[in-house]
Amino acid sequence: MITIFGVPSVVLFGQLLLGLINGAFYAMLSLGLAVIFGMMNIVNFAHGALYMMGALGAWILLEYFGIGYWWALVLAPLGVGIFGIVIERTMLRPLYKLDHLYGMLLTFGLSLIIQGVFRDWFGSSGQPYAIPAALSGGTNLGFMFLPTYRAWVIVASLVVCLGTWFVIERTKLGSYLRAATENAPLVQAFGIDVPRMVMLTFGAGVALAALAGVLAAPIYQVNPLMGADVIIVVFAVVVIGGMGSIMGAIVTGFLVGLVEGLTRAFYPQGSSTVVFVMMAIVLLLRPAGLFGSKPEAAGGVHVSLDAPAPAFRTEILLFLGMAALLIIGPAFVYSGFLMKAMLFALFACAFNLIAGYGRLVSFGHAMFLGTAGYVCGHAAKVWGLTPELAILTGTLSATVLGVVTGWLAIRSRGIYFAMVTLALAQMIYFVALQAPFTGGEDGLQNIPRGKLFGLFDLNDHTLLYGFVLVVFLGGFLLIAQVVRSPFGQVLKAIREHEPRAQSLGYSTDHYKLAAFTLSATLAGLAGATKAVVLQLASLTDVHWGMSGEVLLMTFLGGVGTLYGPVAGAFIVIAMQNYLASLGQWVTVIHGAIFVVCVLAFRRGLVGELIAFLGRSRKPATPAKTPQAAPEAG
Amino acid sequence: MAEMLKVNGLKAWYGESQALHGTSFEVNSGEVVTLLGRNGAGKSTTLRSIMGLVAKRAGSIRYDEKELVGAPSHRIARAGIALCPEERGIFSSLNVRENLLLPPAIRPGGMTVDQIFELFPNLKERLTSQGTKLSGGEQQMLAIGRILRTGARLLMLDEPTEGLAPVIIEQIAATVKTLKTLGFTILLVEQNVTFAAGLADRHYVMELGRVVDEIPGPAFADRIDSLKTYLGV
Amino acid sequence: MANVLEARGLSREFGGFRAVSNVDFALKEGTIHAVIGPNGAGKSTLFNLLTKFLSPSEGRILHKGEDVTALRPPAMARRGVVRSFQISAVFAGLTVRENIEMALLRTNGIGWSFFSSIARRPAIRRRVDEMISRFSLDEHADTQAGNLSYGRKRVLELATTLALDPDVLLLDEPMAGLGHEDIGRITDLVRESGKGRTILLVEHNMRVVSDLADQITVMVRGEVLAEGSYAEVSSRPDVIAAYTGGQHHG
Asked: Which residues form the ABC transporter domain (chain C) (predicted)?
C-alpha cells in the first residue's frame, strides 16, 4: 500500500475528496452570504437555517409527497427563496438604515425560530435521504473509489458557483448588482427599481443556500441543526476570504474544505479547529482577508441608544433596593433559580460592558464563561484547590483568553468583530469537545464545592447563596464603578466617535482591549462561580447558543444600561425554568424576542423605561436645526 | 417656451438638520439654467431633492405637470430626469463600457453610443478600463455621456467642472452648448462663474437653502459685483 | 520663525488618482495659516495626511524638525498637534461637560483610572467650567451633545480641542454648514484662541480667510498653486482663474 508521509494514499485521497465536498458547500454558502452582504449590508445569520430548510424540504417532499430528488432541486430552493422574500419585505427592509449589527441580530433570532420549529416537528435525530438511482454507484479511479454522487456534488456546485460568478461579473444584470453594491441610491436614480432588485437578490441568495441543502441531503444526515454549525465555519471562511469578492468567496470555500481534509488525514484532532486557526493567521497578516479589497464596510447610521445615567443618589437607592430584594428573595423563590439568575446577570453585565459601553458586540462571549468553568472545575476537582482559589484560577484563565482573543478581534469592528468572536469561540468549543480534561460530552461532573477559605462549607445552602450574592453584587458594583470612572467615559467616547478620541490623543485600541479583557474576566468570574454552584462544567457553557443567550438577555433588558442586563437575565432564566415543559418552543420564543427587540424596541425594557421616564419628566427640547447642512464634498 | 420643471417652496432635511428652506424656481423646455451660490448654500441638495435622493422633502416639484415630491427616485428617472452627480458616481467595479451602458433607456430619443463617442472620443479608446482608473476629465465625460443615452430630457449637472484642467473645462462647455442645440434642457450647479456665464440663459443665486436672486443671462456682466458678494470671493 | 509642521514632497494616491501631489508645505510658528482652493483640490486630503489620519504614498512630515511620518494619530495629538473635523465631531452620547472633560482626562493622567472620580479633581472641574463659560455653553452644560444645534456642536468641538491647550491647532472647515451669526462668533473664537498658538485651517469662506489668516496656501488639483498673504494671493490672476474658472497657463 502506498503511503504519503505515513498516511495511506487511499485515506489521503478519501479525505481530500471529503474536503472538496465540504468546500463545495462552504463555497456555495459563503457566495450567497457575500452577494446578500454586498447588496444589503446584512450578515445573514439565518443562512445556515435556510440551508437546513432546503435539505429538510427535499426530505419532506419525498416523504410526504413522493416528489423525488430532481424536482426537489428546483422546488426546495424556490420555496425557500419565496420564504426569504417574505422575510426581506416584512423584517429586513426597515433595518437597512441602521447599524449592520441589527441585521445580524434579527437573522440570528430568525435562525433560532426556524431551527426551533423544525426541531419540534422532526426531533433532532438525523433523517436519511437516499441517493437518487441515477447517481448511485461509483467509479474506481485506481488510486481511490469515487462515488458518483460525490462527483456530481462537486461538479454541480462548481457549475452553480461559476454560473453565479458569470451572472454577476459578466452580464447586464450583474452590472446593476455591482453598481448597486457600490452606490444603490445613484443606481435607483438612473431608473432602476433597486428595492425590488434587493428583494430578488435576497431571494436568490437564500435559494442558493437551499440548493446547497438539497445537494447535501444524501451526504449528511438531514436534521434541523445541520445548518447551525456550518454557518459558523462559513463565517470564518468569509473572514478568511474577505468580503466583497465573489471569486474570493468561491476559492476560499474550496480552499478551506481542502485544508480541512488534509488536516483530517494527517492530524485528525485538528480538523475541526484548523479553519479557525487559519482565520486567526489571516487576521494577523491580512486583516482585510485574502481577497478582500476593503477591510470593512462603513458602518450604518449610528444610533445612540444611551439613556442618560440617573443621579448618583438614585443609583445608590436602586442598588440597595436590588440587594434587599435578593437578600429576602429565597423566602419566596427557589434559591437555586435565584443563584443561577444572578450568575447569568453577572455574565450579561460583563457582556454589556463591552457591547453596550464599548459598542463591540461579541458573538462569542460564551468562551469566557465556559473556559473559566472548566478550569475552575478542574482546579477544584483534580488539583483539590479550595473554592476561592479554584474560582480565581478559572477567572484568570478567562482573563488570559480575553487578552489573546481580544488582541485578535479588536482589529475588526462591527459585524466583522461579531463574526471573528463567534469563530474564535467555536474554536474553543471544539477544543473543549476534544480536550482530555473537559470530559467531552459529559462535561466535568461532581465538582466539589469545598470550604471557602477553608472555613465556610459551601454545601450549606444559605452560605452558598450568600457567597453567590456577594460575588454578583461585587461584580455588579465593579462594573457600575468602571462605567462611571474616567476609563468608562473614555470607552463611551470611543464608541461615539473613535477618530475624535484619537485626535484627542487616546490610543483607542488599548482602551478597547482593556475593556474586552475586563469583560472576559468578569464573564469568567460568573462561569467559575457557576461551576462551583452547579458542580458542573459542560459544553453548553461554551456553545454558541450560550453566546446567543447572553446577547438576548442584554438586548431584551437594555444594552448600555446598568440594570438592563440584570432584568434580561432574570427574565430569560425564569422563562427557561418555568417554560421548560414547552421544549423547543423556548428556543422559538428566544428567537421571537430577538426579532421583536430589533424591530420594535431596540433600547430594551430598561432602556425604554428610562427613555419614557425622561420624556414624561420634562418635555423634550427639540434640537435647533442649523441654517444649512454642509453639502457633500 | 413651455415650462418643464417648477420647484415651489421646496424644503429638504438631512436627518434633523434642514438644508433647504423653501426653494422656488422654474426651468423652461430647452433652457440652460444655473444655480450659483457658495458651498453649503443648498445647490447640490436641490438637485438631489429633485432626483428623490434626499429622504425627507416637502413642498412641490412639478415636472411635465406631474408632482414628484414623494415619488421614489426610479420613478423620477423614468419621468425623464437624469442626474450627473457632483462626485461623478463612476462605479469602480464596472468597466467603462458597463458604466456607459448602466442607466437603462427610459424612453426613445436618447443618443446612440456612437453619437456619444463623437462627443467624447476619449471614451471609445478606454472601454475596457476600470471606470475609476480614468482621469478626472474622462470620468466627468463618462458621467455625462451615460445619461445622454437614456432619453431623459432634463439633465441635471452638478459641478461638472470641479477639479478639472482648463482645457477639459472648455471641452465640457462645448458639450453643454451642443446638448442645448440638440434640444436637451439643462439645470447646472456651478461654482465656476466664468463657465456658467458663457452658457446659461438664466442664473439663480442660492443662499442658506433659498433662491435669493435671479439674473438673466445677458445681465450677467453688469451684476458680476453683486454676484461676487453672494459667492464670497 | 521656526517651522512647526512641515511636509516635504507629500503625495497621496487613491486607486490611481493623485489627490495630493508632491506638496511642499511649511507651517510657521505663531501664524494662522489657511489652505484654500476649489472643491476637489486636495485640501482635506492634505489635512488628513498632516494629522496622520491618512498615510502618505510618498513624502515626509516633520514636526518641530523631527520626522513624524510613521506616527499614528493619537501620538500626533500627544505631541500637541490637535485637529478638528469637517463634520462636527462631538461625543453625541456624552454631555457637554463630559465632552470637554475628555480633553482633560488624558492630560491629567487619569484616562486609565478605573476608580478615581472627576468630582474629586477640582483642577479639572475648574478648567471645564472655565471653558464652558468662555464658550457660552453654560445653559447647556448638562445637555447631551447630540441634542445641541449644529452651531453649538461646532463651538463645543472647538472648546474641547482648546481645553487640551494644543501648540498646533488644525481646523478642517470650521465654518462648514453654519449660518451668519455662528460664523461671526466662531471667527472671533478662532482668532482669540490663536494667541500663542499656531493654527492651520482649511476653509471655503473667503471672508473668514481674509479676516483670520496671516498666510495662505492655494491648492488646485492636488498641487500648491500659490502662497502668500491674502492681498498677495487674491490679486494673482492664476488664483482668480482657478476660482472663477477662467484661463490660466502654468
From this structure: 5-246
A457-466, B139-148, B220-229 — which one is most confidently predicted on average?
Answer: B139-148
Predicted confidence (pLDDT) per residue in A155-210, tens digit: 999 999 999 999 999 999 999 999 998 899 999 999 999 999 999 999 999 999 99
Q: Is C133 part of a structural domain of the chain?
A: no
**Does A592 lie in the same domain as A490?**
yes
The answer, for A306 touching chain C at a CB cutoff of 8 Å, is yes
For residues A543 and A400, membership in a common domain is answered with yes
Q: Which residues of B touch C205 (CB under 8 A)?
A: 38-39, 232
Output the pLDDT for position A303: 45
Q: Which pLDDT score, from 0 to 100, does residue A310 have?
A: 66
Is residue A632 one of the residues assigned to a domain?
no
> Which residues of chain A are within 8 Å of residue B21 when distances are taken between CB atoms?
628
Which pLDDT belongs to residue A631?
Answer: 36
What is the tens place of the pLDDT at every residue in A79-93? 999 999 999 999 998
Mean pLDDT of A605-609: 86
Residue B41 has φ and ψ, to the nearest 5°, of -75, -20
Nearest to C113 among A485, A505, A628 (CB): A485
The residue in chain B having the minimum alpha-carbon distance to the alpha carbon of residue C223 is B163
Residues from chain A that touch B106, judged by Cβ atoms under 8 A, are 191
What pLDDT, in 10s, does the model give residues A136-148? 888 888 778 889 9
CATH at residue B94: 3.40.50.300
Same domain, A277 and A354: no
Q: How many domains does chain B have?
A: 1
All three cell numbers of A308? 442618560
C-alpha pair distances (Å), B80 with each of B66, B150, B184, C178: 11, 9, 11, 35
* Mutation for B interface: A190, A196, A246, A293, most B CBs within 10 A: A190
What is the band of A300 on the pLDDT scale with cuts at 50, 70, 90?
A: very low
Number of domains in chain C: 1
Q: Could you count the other beta carbons within 10 Å of the beta carbon of residue B162?
A: 22
The domain of C158 spans 3-90+148-244
A358-374 confidence digits (pLDDT tens): 888 898 999 999 999 99
Which among A527, A519, A547 has a CA at the least distance from the CA of A375? A527
Q: For chain C, which ranges sit under pLDDT 70? A: 1, 15-16, 39, 177, 179-180, 242-250
Asked if residue A536 lies in contact with residue A445, where contact means CB atoms within 8 angstroms, the answer is yes
* Domain membership of residue A52 as a residue range: 3-128+146-285
Sheet holding B154-158, edge to edge: B81-84, B154-158, B185-189, B32-36, B202-207, B210-216
The C-alpha of A186 sits at a distance from chain B's nearest C-alpha, in angstroms, of 7
Interface of C with B in 125-144 (CB under 8 A): none
* SS3 assignment, position A130: coil
* Number of domains into which chain A is organized: 2
Same domain, yes or no: A368 and A488: yes
Range of the domain at B39: 3-231
For chain C, say whether A623 makes contact (Cβ under 8 Å): yes
| Residue A460 and residue A393 in one domain | yes
Is A628 within 8 Å of chain B by CB?
Answer: yes
- Residue A461 shares a structural domain with residue A552: yes
Residues in A touching C178 (Cβ below 8 Å): 626-627
* Measured distance CA(A593)–CA(C200) in Å, rounded: 52
Task: Give me B206's grid cell.
Answer: 442660492
